[in-house]
Amino acid sequence: MADEACRAWALETFGRAALPDARLNVRLLKTAGALAARPSDSIPQACGKAKAAKGAYRFIENKRVNTHALLRASGQATAGRCSGRPSVLAIQDTSIISLTHHPQTRGLGPIDEAGARGLLVHSTLAVSTEGETIGLLDAQMWTRDPNDRHHAQKRRSLPIEEKESVKWLRGMEGARRAFATLPSPLWPRLIHVMDREGDIHEVFEDIVKAGDGAVVRAMRNRLVDDPNRLAYETARASPVLERRSIQVRRQENHPARTAQVEVRACRVHLTPDTSHWPDHRPLDLTLVEVWEPNAPADVEPLHWRIWTTERVETSADARKVIGFYGNRWRIEDVHLTLKSGCRIEERQFEAVDRIERALALYLNIAVRIVRLRDSAKNRPDAPCTEELADEEWRALWGYRNKCRAPREQKPPTLREAILWIGALGGHMGRKADGMPGVRTLWKGWRDLMLLTDAYRVYRSIEQSETG
Q1: What is the spatial distance between Cα 372 and Cα 3, in angstroms, rounded to a whole number?
Q2: Integer Cα distance of 252 and 173 in angstroms
Q3: 389 with 418: CB under 8 angstroms?
Q4: How far is Cα of residue 1 from the mean position of the Cα atoms in its chain?
């Protein structure tokens, strides 16, 4: 059975789901709560009882359960948590779900040139400008047509609506739609964060038209109205805003090091070649460049270029934009947790529509785990009862201290609780180790659920003996 905190999370996340039968809504909350309590377990293990597992499978197999309804509900819940904030980062990324090892699953499509099969998920994650994961705003799922093998040159000439890259426009539309149920004064300004694949002229046009913000890793050296003619050369010719040191993590065959970089920024007027792209309009954007001019001979120099709609006139402005982009890796953590923590690629279903319903649940569960980690970092001194039920933290405290928590025991802080859960998952907790990552957290979370079950059994026996 799902614990109290997971049941509350399920109600908050999916309570707005517009399903065609009230009984389906009840089953949704029970299933989501059970899977959230034990994200790594099989569905029968997570549900605990055969009747509950049967109900969960029936829910996922039910064609009346619309995946979009589940995602709209979780998006609206995320929007509610964002309400009243001045700005929110809407971070998009795509992940490939490989299911080649499930040959009986109907409806899968190709995911690479070697013939592997699966589907794609494109998620939009809400993250605060301070770097705390808030929730899932939107997700798209699709399979590729095995007969659609356009030549690369032909694909480039197609309108964006006929290309897979339309996912970026739909992701922005989905993020805005999540806020539609809120009064407009509570809407935050959305700042869309994307990697190089999102460096698309139509994406920037859409963002500027909507009045949103953009922070996108540059992939194309665009034509600009400047004597240098190209944006990259214009940025390099701009004055240095600051020189600073950046710590570079250890990489294969290279130890950790300190890089000395130069930061530049320039406001440019894009002048697209209308002979090739007649529908592209001129735009004003800022290009931020971070460049390591004197890297050691045996390493690749640091070099980032970021397109943004924001004005960057000072080093502080540049640091803010770079910081916004630096939060993009949180969506990669969500997809990592989805695959390794929630083991979505090991789930076996007969058809792709059933996988999509399961994905709608497990994506939000993966976000919850990442959000738990971020909460400990951003609100370390908050009581852990903001994220854990009473039985959970008492079971954790008892295991940590090898004795029962006194009735008047003060709950540990979020930081303490996350460190203890991380220790269950193998986190060493040394000073240099920092806070646990998502890999150790999902392992520790499973052990915490087992401890909580044992705690409940102990309490039940104790009450029956004293009653």
Answers
A1: 16
A2: 39
A3: no
A4: 27
Q: Which two tokens stand for residue 340?
A: 């390794």
Dmax (CA) for the chain in angstroms is 87
**Sequence-distant (≥ 6) Cβ neighbours of residue 333 within 8 angstroms:** 370, 437, 438
User: End-to-end CA distance of the chain, in Å?
Assistant: 24
Residue 373 confidence (pLDDT): 85
CB–CB of 365/35 below 8 Å? yes
DSSP E strand stretches across 53-172: 87-98, 109-110, 117-128, 133-142
Distance (Å, rounded) from C-alpha 462 to C-alpha 466?
6
Question: What mean pLDDT is predicted for residues 78-85?
Answer: 95
| Residue predicted with more confidence, 330 or 256 | 330
Give 392-415 as a DSSP string. HHHHHHHHHHTSPPPTTPPPPBHH
Closest alpha carbon to 31 in 384, 18, 51, 21: 51
On average, the pLDDT of the chain sits at: 91
Residue 23's CB: how many other CB atoms inside 10 A? 11
Let me know how long the chain is: 467
> Which residue(s) pair with 329 in the sheet?
none
Inform me whether the pLDDT recorded for 2 exceeds 80. Answer: no
Cβ pair 72, 18 in contact under 8 A? yes
Asked if 370 and 333 count as a contact pair (C-beta separation under 8 A), the reply is: yes
Report the SS3 class of residue 191: strand
**What pLDDT does residue 305 have?**
97
Tell me which amino acid residue 19 is: L
Task: Please report the pLDDT score of residue 271 as a whole number.
Answer: 94
Q: Assess contact for 439 and 340: CB atoms under 8 A.
A: yes
pLDDT band, residue 150 (cuts 50/70/90)? low
Do strands 117-128 and 133-142 pair parallel, antiparallel, or not at all (unpaired)?
A: antiparallel
Instruction: Go through the domains of the chain in sequence order and give each one's CATH number.
Output: 379-459 (1.10.740.10)
Q: How high is the pLDDT of residue 154?
A: 61
pLDDT for 1 equals 38
Mean pLDDT along residues 122-144: 96
| Identity of the amino acid at 331 | I
